[in-house]
Design a protein that fits this description.
The chain is mainly β and about 130 residues long. About 10% of the residues lie in helices and about 35% in strands. Strand 1 and strand 2 form a beta hairpin. The longest helix is centred in the first third of the chain and has 9 residues, at about 35-45. It is globular. GO terms for molecular function: DNA binding.
Length: about 130
């Protein structure tokens, strides 16, 4: 788990799962650098495509302790799977961000399929076209 902060204030937690055979000696590196910089520079891997799922959650006891916020504080969780150009998944990550300190901007080109889940209080199939 990699805690991230800005000006000494907690911002997020990152949990990354990387295949050891693709990233030998990764944990011996300077992990304060951006991972994608190291992936490309040190291992010759760039993401060809990435799936990300964003959802609002509340801080668990463990997350609250690490982020120095009350249990139940709103968070934004992002789960990501990055694949190389041959389709090999090389990164599986779960990040949680303090919702009041983050803004996400997305840009899409072409057709984008939207979906909503029943857990979000939306009826079955709503949001898909």
């Amino acid at each position: 788990m990699r805690p991230r902060s800005i000006e000494g204030r907690p911002l997020s937690l990152e949990i990354s799962h990387l295949p050891a055979d693709l990233f030998p000696q990764f944990l011996a590196r300077d992990l304060t650098q951006p991972f994608y910089t190291m992936f490309e520079r040190d291992y010759g891997l760039r993401p060809h495509d990435v799936d990300e799922t964003l959802e609002s959650v509340t801080a668990s006891e463990h997350e609250a302790e690490l982020l120095r916020v009350p249990v139940g504080t709103p968070l934004m969780r992002i789960r990501r799977v990055a694949r190389s150009d041959d389709g090999t998944p090389f990164e599986r990550t779960t990040d949680v961000y303090l919702a009041d300190r983050m803004r996400f901007t997305m840009h899409h080109v072409g057709y984008v399929r939207l979906s909503a889940t029943a857990g979000a209080g939306v009826g079955s199939g709503a949001g898909t076209r």
